[in-house]
Specification:
With 281 residues, the protein is mostly beta strands. The chain folds into two domains: 23-44 and 55-200, SH3 type barrels (Roll); 218-281, Irregular (Ribosomal protein L2, domain 3), CATH 4.10.950. It is 4% helix and 23% strand. The chain is built from two helices and 17 strands. Strands 9-16-10-13-14-15-17 form a seven-stranded antiparallel β-sheet, with no helix packed on it. Strands 7-6-5-8 form a four-stranded antiparallel β-sheet, with no helix packed on it. A two-stranded antiparallel sheet has the order 1-2. A hairpin with an 8-residue loop joins strand 5 (75-81) and strand 6. The model has no long low-confidence stretch (mean pLDDT 91).
Length: 281
Amino acid sequence: MPVIKYKPTTPGRRQSSVLRNKDLSKPTEKKLLKGKKSTAGRNNQGKITVRHRGGGVKRKLRQIDFKRDKFDIPAKVASLEYDPNRSANIALLNYADGEKRYIIAPDGLAVGQTVISSKQKIEAEVGNNMPLKYIPIGMNVHSIELYPGGGAKIARAAGSSVVLMGREKGYAQLKMPSGEIRLVLEECRATVGDVGNKEYNQVRLGKAGRSRHLGRRPAVRGKAMNPIDHPHGGGEGASPVGLKHPKTPWGKPALGVKTRKKNKPSDKLILRRRNAKRRGK
């Protein structure tokens, strides 16, 4: 789907671009839709735990089949649809036994195509799902499980994919989009191909209104606040941060600070960090 820029009839239209969705269908399977309540970034006590959230267009959740646990039953792609809850598009599958499910739509998947999920070795075609130990080395995969039967957790966003680098001692070596190389059990299943809708990150919203439609409220710079509201606040005129390191509104280090816990059990499964430093150095 190409990115389209329209004539600059207004200031907002001048800066904005959109994805052409003529190939996508409207939701056809209402049984796979359910209501979604807007929390506006608040927890069960009504306190804001995530800032800059609220408003937005009402939407319904699509129940996505991340487990792909309907084995050895061929499914025909009935339609490709837009999902307002994620960057990737979704595909409606009609299984041979009559059941219908949504999956993340891989790049190149077409209406009328047949896909299958299996615990055994099958053809490594786009949209097919099988254990990593049966997928050829060097292939791009997505929707990967972190542990067998746990459902897809890795590479689900638009345009993302992971390269299967090799297999050794019951583990598969995966190269993440960030450059990190990680070990995952080869019994974990993955879907062949890249996630579709690759041009998603090329879209420019163009105006504040489109951001509000997505449920994003304005984000005010800390240095534009008063000292009582933010550590960066205060000063005369356009003052700098005024601190050795940037801080969050609650005084904790921000901007580039590592948030991963130290001595996490899964550290031993990371062969190379995203910053290219090898484990143990």
